[in-house]
Amino acid sequence: MFPIERPRRLRRTGALRRLVAETSLTPADLVAPLFVAEGRDAPRPIAALPGHDQHTLESLVVEVRALHAAGVGGVILFGLPATKDDLGSGAFDDDGVVQVALRRLRDEFGDELVVMADLCLDEYTSHGHCGVLRADGAVDNDATLDLYARAALAQARAGAAVVAPSGMMDGQVGAIRTALDAEGYSDTVIMAYAVKYASALYGPFREAVGVEIADGGDRRSYQQDFRNRREAWREARLDVDEGADIVMVKPAMTYLDILGDLRREVDVPLCAYHVSGEYSMVKAAAANGWIDGDAVAVEQLTAIRRAGADFILTYFAREVAEALNP
Ligand code: PBG
Asked: What is the pLDDT of residues 253-288, one digit of tens each?
Protein backbone atom coordinates (compact mmCIF):
# COMPACT_ATOMS: atom_id res chain seq x y z
CA MET A 1 0.00 0.00 0.00
CA PHE A 2 1.35 3.44 -0.94
CA PRO A 3 0.77 6.41 1.34
CA ILE A 4 -2.01 8.71 0.05
CA GLU A 5 -0.95 11.38 -2.43
CA ARG A 6 -0.40 14.72 -0.70
CA PRO A 7 -0.26 17.66 -3.12
CA ARG A 8 -0.83 19.89 -0.12
CA ARG A 9 2.75 19.16 1.01
CA LEU A 10 4.03 21.70 -1.54
CA ARG A 11 1.54 24.33 -0.42
CA ARG A 12 2.52 24.38 3.23
CA THR A 13 4.66 27.56 3.27
CA GLY A 14 4.89 30.69 1.19
CA ALA A 15 8.50 29.86 0.34
CA LEU A 16 7.55 26.43 -1.02
CA ARG A 17 4.66 27.84 -2.99
CA ARG A 18 6.91 30.47 -4.53
CA LEU A 19 9.54 27.89 -5.40
CA VAL A 20 7.13 25.66 -7.31
CA ALA A 21 4.96 28.37 -8.88
CA GLU A 22 4.48 27.63 -12.58
CA THR A 23 3.65 31.19 -13.61
CA SER A 24 5.23 34.55 -12.86
CA LEU A 25 3.93 38.08 -13.20
CA THR A 26 6.43 40.93 -13.33
CA PRO A 27 6.19 44.62 -14.31
CA ALA A 28 8.10 43.83 -17.51
CA ASP A 29 5.16 41.65 -18.61
CA LEU A 30 2.82 44.64 -18.67
CA VAL A 31 2.10 47.23 -21.34
CA ALA A 32 0.09 50.34 -20.47
CA PRO A 33 -2.49 51.70 -22.94
CA LEU A 34 -2.41 55.53 -22.90
CA PHE A 35 -4.61 58.18 -24.48
CA VAL A 36 -3.25 61.43 -25.82
CA ALA A 37 -5.52 64.27 -26.90
CA GLU A 38 -4.69 67.00 -29.40
CA GLY A 39 -5.03 70.65 -28.50
CA ARG A 40 -5.83 70.40 -24.78
CA ASP A 41 -4.22 72.37 -22.02
CA ALA A 42 -5.13 69.98 -19.19
CA PRO A 43 -5.61 66.22 -18.87
CA ARG A 44 -9.21 65.06 -18.55
CA PRO A 45 -10.18 62.06 -16.41
CA ILE A 46 -12.01 59.21 -18.14
CA ALA A 47 -15.01 58.39 -15.96
CA ALA A 48 -15.41 54.82 -17.18
CA LEU A 49 -11.69 54.08 -16.67
CA PRO A 50 -10.99 55.26 -13.12
CA GLY A 51 -7.38 56.34 -12.73
CA HIS A 52 -6.91 57.08 -16.44
CA ASP A 53 -6.87 60.37 -18.32
CA GLN A 54 -7.06 61.73 -21.79
CA HIS A 55 -3.54 63.13 -21.65
CA THR A 56 -1.91 66.27 -22.91
CA LEU A 57 1.61 65.82 -24.27
CA GLU A 58 3.00 67.04 -20.96
CA SER A 59 0.90 64.80 -18.74
CA LEU A 60 1.64 61.87 -21.06
CA VAL A 61 5.35 62.28 -20.51
CA VAL A 62 4.86 62.46 -16.74
CA GLU A 63 2.81 59.26 -16.81
CA VAL A 64 5.35 57.43 -18.95
CA ARG A 65 8.10 58.46 -16.53
CA ALA A 66 6.15 56.84 -13.69
CA LEU A 67 5.51 53.70 -15.73
CA HIS A 68 9.17 53.50 -16.66
CA ALA A 69 10.20 53.92 -13.03
CA ALA A 70 7.83 51.08 -12.09
CA GLY A 71 9.54 48.89 -14.67
CA VAL A 72 6.65 48.27 -17.07
CA GLY A 73 7.59 46.68 -20.36
CA GLY A 74 6.06 49.27 -22.64
CA VAL A 75 3.29 51.68 -23.52
CA ILE A 76 0.81 51.74 -26.39
CA LEU A 77 -0.60 55.04 -27.61
CA PHE A 78 -4.11 55.90 -28.76
CA GLY A 79 -4.88 59.32 -30.17
CA LEU A 80 -7.78 61.73 -29.86
CA PRO A 81 -7.53 64.13 -32.79
CA ALA A 82 -8.95 67.65 -32.63
CA THR A 83 -10.88 67.02 -35.87
CA LYS A 84 -12.07 63.92 -37.69
CA ASP A 85 -12.80 63.26 -41.35
CA ASP A 86 -14.04 60.50 -43.67
CA LEU A 87 -10.59 59.03 -44.26
CA GLY A 88 -9.24 59.38 -40.74
CA SER A 89 -6.35 61.56 -41.94
CA GLY A 90 -5.02 62.17 -38.43
CA ALA A 91 -3.89 58.55 -38.36
CA PHE A 92 -1.38 59.02 -41.16
CA ASP A 93 -0.54 62.73 -40.96
CA ASP A 94 3.05 63.32 -39.77
CA ASP A 95 1.64 66.00 -37.48
CA GLY A 96 -1.17 63.76 -36.17
CA VAL A 97 -1.42 63.67 -32.39
CA VAL A 98 0.09 60.20 -31.95
CA GLN A 99 2.99 60.96 -34.28
CA VAL A 100 3.78 64.12 -32.31
CA ALA A 101 3.61 62.14 -29.07
CA LEU A 102 5.82 59.36 -30.46
CA ARG A 103 8.53 61.86 -31.37
CA ARG A 104 8.33 63.31 -27.89
CA LEU A 105 8.59 59.92 -26.19
CA ARG A 106 11.41 58.82 -28.43
CA ASP A 107 13.37 61.98 -27.56
CA GLU A 108 12.81 61.50 -23.86
CA PHE A 109 13.00 57.71 -23.44
CA GLY A 110 14.82 56.39 -26.51
CA ASP A 111 14.65 52.61 -26.40
CA GLU A 112 14.50 52.38 -22.60
CA LEU A 113 10.97 51.06 -22.76
CA VAL A 114 9.03 49.75 -25.73
CA VAL A 115 6.94 52.48 -27.33
CA MET A 116 4.05 51.12 -29.37
CA ALA A 117 1.40 52.76 -31.50
CA ASP A 118 -2.07 51.36 -32.03
CA LEU A 119 -2.65 51.48 -35.77
CA CYS A 120 -6.25 52.04 -36.77
CA LEU A 121 -8.53 54.67 -38.23
CA ASP A 122 -11.52 54.59 -35.92
CA GLU A 123 -10.37 57.34 -33.56
CA TYR A 124 -9.85 59.57 -36.59
CA THR A 125 -12.86 58.85 -38.81
CA SER A 126 -16.02 60.91 -38.58
CA HIS A 127 -18.12 57.72 -38.93
CA GLY A 128 -16.15 55.79 -36.27
CA HIS A 129 -15.38 52.72 -38.38
CA CYS A 130 -11.92 51.16 -38.51
CA GLY A 131 -11.75 51.54 -42.29
CA VAL A 132 -12.92 53.77 -45.10
CA LEU A 133 -16.46 53.39 -46.35
CA ARG A 134 -17.74 52.56 -49.83
CA ALA A 135 -20.67 54.49 -51.26
CA ASP A 136 -23.02 51.79 -49.92
CA GLY A 137 -21.68 52.32 -46.39
CA ALA A 138 -19.73 49.04 -46.15
CA VAL A 139 -16.10 49.08 -45.00
CA ASP A 140 -13.80 48.87 -48.02
CA ASN A 141 -11.09 46.38 -47.06
CA ASP A 142 -8.51 47.02 -49.76
CA ALA A 143 -8.83 50.81 -49.86
CA THR A 144 -8.27 50.75 -46.10
CA LEU A 145 -5.02 48.79 -46.50
CA ASP A 146 -3.42 51.71 -48.34
CA LEU A 147 -4.24 54.04 -45.46
CA TYR A 148 -2.94 51.56 -42.87
CA ALA A 149 0.33 51.40 -44.82
CA ARG A 150 0.56 55.20 -44.70
CA ALA A 151 -0.22 55.22 -40.98
CA ALA A 152 2.48 52.60 -40.33
CA LEU A 153 5.04 54.73 -42.15
CA ALA A 154 4.04 57.87 -40.28
CA GLN A 155 4.35 56.03 -36.96
CA ALA A 156 7.68 54.44 -37.90
CA ARG A 157 9.06 57.81 -39.02
CA ALA A 158 7.95 59.29 -35.70
CA GLY A 159 9.89 56.64 -33.81
CA ALA A 160 7.44 53.86 -32.91
CA ALA A 161 9.37 50.68 -32.10
CA VAL A 162 6.18 48.66 -32.58
CA VAL A 163 3.12 49.29 -34.74
CA ALA A 164 -0.03 47.44 -33.77
CA PRO A 165 -2.71 47.13 -36.45
CA SER A 166 -6.06 46.67 -34.71
CA GLY A 167 -8.57 47.16 -37.53
CA MET A 168 -9.08 43.49 -38.51
CA MET A 169 -8.87 44.13 -42.26
CA ASP A 170 -7.79 41.09 -44.28
CA GLY A 171 -4.20 41.42 -45.45
CA GLN A 172 -3.34 44.31 -43.13
CA VAL A 173 -0.15 42.79 -41.76
CA GLY A 174 1.23 41.99 -45.21
CA ALA A 175 0.39 45.46 -46.52
CA ILE A 176 2.09 47.14 -43.56
CA ARG A 177 5.18 44.90 -43.66
CA THR A 178 5.63 45.56 -47.37
CA ALA A 179 5.33 49.33 -46.94
CA LEU A 180 7.70 49.44 -43.96
CA ASP A 181 10.34 47.33 -45.68
CA ALA A 182 10.13 49.39 -48.87
CA GLU A 183 10.96 52.55 -46.93
CA GLY A 184 13.80 51.01 -44.92
CA TYR A 185 11.87 50.36 -41.70
CA SER A 186 12.65 46.68 -41.60
CA ASP A 187 13.36 46.89 -37.86
CA THR A 188 9.89 48.16 -37.00
CA VAL A 189 8.03 45.41 -35.18
CA ILE A 190 4.46 44.48 -36.12
CA MET A 191 2.29 43.39 -33.22
CA ALA A 192 -0.90 42.16 -34.85
CA TYR A 193 -4.26 42.29 -33.16
CA ALA A 194 -4.64 38.90 -34.82
CA VAL A 195 -7.62 37.61 -32.90
CA LYS A 196 -9.97 40.41 -32.02
CA TYR A 197 -13.53 39.64 -31.16
CA ALA A 198 -16.51 41.96 -31.63
CA SER A 199 -16.94 42.44 -27.89
CA ALA A 200 -19.21 44.48 -25.66
CA LEU A 201 -16.22 44.80 -23.33
CA TYR A 202 -14.81 47.71 -25.37
CA GLY A 203 -17.49 50.08 -24.03
CA PRO A 204 -15.33 52.19 -21.71
CA PHE A 205 -12.62 52.49 -24.37
CA ARG A 206 -15.06 54.09 -26.77
CA GLU A 207 -15.82 56.67 -24.11
CA ALA A 208 -12.08 57.14 -23.57
CA VAL A 209 -11.44 57.94 -27.23
CA GLY A 210 -14.79 59.59 -27.95
CA VAL A 211 -15.71 57.13 -30.71
CA GLU A 212 -19.30 56.52 -31.65
CA ILE A 213 -20.09 54.36 -34.65
CA ALA A 214 -22.42 56.14 -37.05
CA ASP A 215 -26.05 55.06 -37.49
CA GLY A 216 -25.96 52.66 -34.54
CA GLY A 217 -23.48 50.51 -36.48
CA ASP A 218 -21.12 47.89 -35.10
CA ARG A 219 -17.90 46.12 -36.07
CA ARG A 220 -19.27 42.65 -36.63
CA SER A 221 -18.39 42.61 -40.32
CA TYR A 222 -14.69 42.82 -39.49
CA GLN A 223 -14.15 41.76 -35.87
CA GLN A 224 -14.62 38.10 -34.98
CA ASP A 225 -17.79 36.37 -33.86
CA PHE A 226 -17.44 35.25 -30.25
CA ARG A 227 -19.14 31.96 -31.05
CA ASN A 228 -16.03 30.90 -33.01
CA ARG A 229 -12.89 29.19 -31.79
CA ARG A 230 -11.29 27.54 -34.83
CA GLU A 231 -11.49 30.82 -36.70
CA ALA A 232 -8.96 32.25 -34.26
CA TRP A 233 -6.29 29.76 -35.37
CA ARG A 234 -6.89 30.79 -38.95
CA GLU A 235 -6.62 34.50 -38.22
CA ALA A 236 -3.41 34.00 -36.25
CA ARG A 237 -1.85 31.75 -38.87
CA LEU A 238 -2.59 34.26 -41.62
CA ASP A 239 -1.00 37.08 -39.65
CA VAL A 240 2.13 35.10 -38.88
CA ASP A 241 2.41 34.12 -42.56
CA GLU A 242 2.09 37.80 -43.53
CA GLY A 243 4.94 38.72 -41.21
CA ALA A 244 3.50 39.48 -37.78
CA ASP A 245 6.27 39.45 -35.18
CA ILE A 246 3.87 39.23 -32.23
CA VAL A 247 0.22 38.18 -32.20
CA MET A 248 -2.50 39.27 -29.81
CA VAL A 249 -5.73 37.87 -28.48
CA LYS A 250 -8.34 40.41 -27.41
CA PRO A 251 -10.21 40.57 -25.04
CA ALA A 252 -8.46 38.32 -22.52
CA MET A 253 -10.45 36.86 -19.63
CA THR A 254 -13.39 35.61 -21.66
CA TYR A 255 -11.02 34.15 -24.27
CA LEU A 256 -8.50 32.10 -22.28
CA ASP A 257 -9.38 29.01 -24.35
CA ILE A 258 -8.26 30.91 -27.46
CA LEU A 259 -5.02 31.97 -25.77
CA GLY A 260 -4.34 28.38 -24.80
CA ASP A 261 -5.00 27.23 -28.36
CA LEU A 262 -2.72 29.83 -29.90
CA ARG A 263 0.08 29.10 -27.45
CA ARG A 264 0.20 25.65 -29.04
CA GLU A 265 -0.38 26.86 -32.61
CA VAL A 266 2.14 29.68 -33.07
CA ASP A 267 5.79 30.06 -32.12
CA VAL A 268 5.95 33.87 -32.14
CA PRO A 269 5.43 35.85 -28.93
CA LEU A 270 1.82 35.97 -27.87
CA CYS A 271 0.13 38.75 -25.95
CA ALA A 272 -3.35 39.46 -24.64
CA TYR A 273 -5.27 42.69 -24.23
CA HIS A 274 -7.10 42.89 -20.92
CA VAL A 275 -9.54 45.45 -22.27
CA SER A 276 -11.32 48.46 -20.87
CA GLY A 277 -14.48 46.63 -19.80
CA GLU A 278 -12.47 43.98 -18.02
CA TYR A 279 -10.70 46.70 -16.03
CA SER A 280 -13.83 48.73 -15.32
CA MET A 281 -15.75 45.72 -14.00
CA VAL A 282 -13.07 45.07 -11.41
CA LYS A 283 -12.89 48.76 -10.48
CA ALA A 284 -16.65 49.07 -10.13
CA ALA A 285 -17.03 45.98 -7.97
CA ALA A 286 -14.05 47.04 -5.82
CA ALA A 287 -15.49 50.56 -5.39
CA ASN A 288 -18.63 48.95 -4.02
CA GLY A 289 -16.58 46.93 -1.57
CA TRP A 290 -17.71 43.69 -3.19
CA ILE A 291 -14.28 42.36 -4.16
CA ASP A 292 -10.66 43.11 -3.31
CA GLY A 293 -9.76 44.86 -6.56
CA ASP A 294 -5.98 44.62 -6.18
CA ALA A 295 -6.13 40.89 -5.51
CA VAL A 296 -8.51 40.27 -8.40
CA ALA A 297 -6.28 42.27 -10.76
CA VAL A 298 -3.23 40.15 -9.92
CA GLU A 299 -5.28 36.94 -10.15
CA GLN A 300 -6.66 37.85 -13.57
CA LEU A 301 -3.34 38.97 -15.02
CA THR A 302 -1.61 35.86 -13.71
CA ALA A 303 -4.34 33.68 -15.22
CA ILE A 304 -3.75 35.33 -18.59
CA ARG A 305 -0.03 34.54 -18.31
CA ARG A 306 -0.88 30.96 -17.23
CA ALA A 307 -3.06 30.52 -20.33
CA GLY A 308 -0.08 31.35 -22.50
CA ALA A 309 0.40 35.11 -22.90
CA ASP A 310 3.99 36.35 -22.81
CA PHE A 311 2.83 39.83 -21.94
CA ILE A 312 -0.39 41.74 -21.31
CA LEU A 313 -1.79 45.10 -22.34
CA THR A 314 -3.67 46.31 -19.31
CA TYR A 315 -5.03 49.45 -17.67
CA PHE A 316 -3.77 47.92 -14.42
CA ALA A 317 -0.15 48.20 -15.62
CA ARG A 318 0.93 51.04 -13.37
CA GLU A 319 -0.81 50.03 -10.16
CA VAL A 320 0.05 46.35 -10.43
CA ALA A 321 3.67 47.10 -11.40
CA GLU A 322 4.00 49.43 -8.42
CA ALA A 323 2.46 46.80 -6.14
CA LEU A 324 4.84 44.13 -7.46
CA ASN A 325 7.87 46.31 -6.74
CA PRO A 326 9.42 45.88 -3.30
C1 PBG B 1 -9.82 49.97 -32.28
C2 PBG B 1 -9.55 49.54 -30.89
C3 PBG B 1 -10.51 49.29 -29.91
C4 PBG B 1 -9.81 48.91 -28.77
C5 PBG B 1 -8.46 48.93 -29.07
N6 PBG B 1 -8.32 49.32 -30.41
C7 PBG B 1 -11.96 49.48 -29.91
C8 PBG B 1 -12.81 48.79 -30.88
O9 PBG B 1 -12.40 47.85 -31.56
O10 PBG B 1 -13.95 49.22 -30.97
C11 PBG B 1 -10.45 48.53 -27.47
C12 PBG B 1 -9.58 48.47 -26.29
C13 PBG B 1 -10.28 48.39 -24.99
O14 PBG B 1 -11.51 48.19 -24.88
O15 PBG B 1 -9.57 48.53 -23.99
N16 PBG B 1 -8.87 50.84 -32.78
From this structure: 999 999 999 999 999 999 999 999 999 999 999 999
Q: Is 196 among the residues known to form the active site?
A: yes
| Binding pocket residue ranges, ligand 1, CB within 6 Å | 118, 120, 122, 130, 166, 202, 205, 219, 275-276
Find the catalytic residue in 52, 250, 274, 318: 250
Nearest CA to ligand 1 atom 8: 202
Q: Which residues contact 285 (CB under 8 A, 6 or more apart)?
A: 291, 293, 296
3-state secondary structure of 113: coil
Domains and CATH numbers, the chain: 25-324 (3.20.20.70)
Alpha carbons 199 and 250: distance in angstroms, whole number = 9
pTM of the model: 0.97
**Which residue's CA is minimally distant from atom 16 of ligand 1?**
120
- Supply the pLDDT for residue 2: 83
Q: Which DSSP string do the residues of 229-265 spell out, in sequence order?
A: SHHHHHHHHHHHHHT-SEEEEES-GGGHHHHHHHHHH
Residue to probe by mutation, ligand 1, list 31, 35, 80, 166, most atoms within 8 Å of CB? 166
- Nearest partner of 248 among 224, 228, 280, 220, judged by Cα: 224
